[in-house]
Write a structure and sequence with these properties.
The protein is mainly α. The protein is 79% helix and 0% strand.
Length: 173
């Protein structure tokens, strides 16, 4: 969470070996959440409806799983969890759609907040993480650097495409 970065400023300098108390547990619980959500989607949704999210969850499970197992890169995973702040508004959007409340002030307000948090917590965070990975490539073992680079190479376009879809759906109908 953002509070952790304020309380532990060294985290922004060392995302490999430094992490505040409880951070490892938070990342481990997040792996559990993504695993549960992955299995739930496999069991309850058609593959053509959920393949993008299943792919997303697979990447997160692998990357966060490495952090949990190695007790390293927990700080990097914490930064990645900032992305999930936007998920609140993405999920609220889905709930409002399912409740057929698209033409309400609540939906419109959520659409604006959703796009704002999307830019700040998804696009900017992923850009910062990609930059950090690139700048620290000498300090990161090749295998881990490869996983991180592939993860960012998958997540960034996925999030840009989803941003475009949200923009088109909610603002350019």
């Amino acid at each position: 969470s953002p509070r952790r970065f304020c309380l532990h400023p060294g985290l922004s300098e060392d995302l490999v070996g430094t992490h505040p108390p409880g951070a490892h547990s938070l990342v481990a619980v997040s792996v559990g959440y993504f695993l549960e959500d992955f299995v739930d989607m496999l069991c309850n949704q058609k593959l053509h409806q959920s393949w993008e999210l299943l792919f997303h969850h697979s990447v997160v499970i692998v990357c966060f799983g490495i952090a949990v197992l190695l007790h390293q890169y927990v700080g990097f995973a914490l930064v990645a969890l900032l992305v999930e702040i936007n998920s609140i508004f993405l999920h609220l959007r889905q709930i409002l759609l399912m409740a057929n409340l698209v033409h309400t002030t609540c939906y419109r307000l959520n659409s604006i907040v959703n796009l704002g948090t999307y830019v700040v917590f998804r696009i900017a965070t992923l850009a910062w993480m990609t930059r950090w990975l690139f700048l620290n490539r000498e300090n990161v073992p090749l295998a881990t650097y490869a996983v991180g680079t592939v993860g960012m190479a998958i997540m960034t376009p996925m999030n840009i495409i989803l941003f475009y879809r949200l923009l088109r759906s909610d603002f350019f109908k």
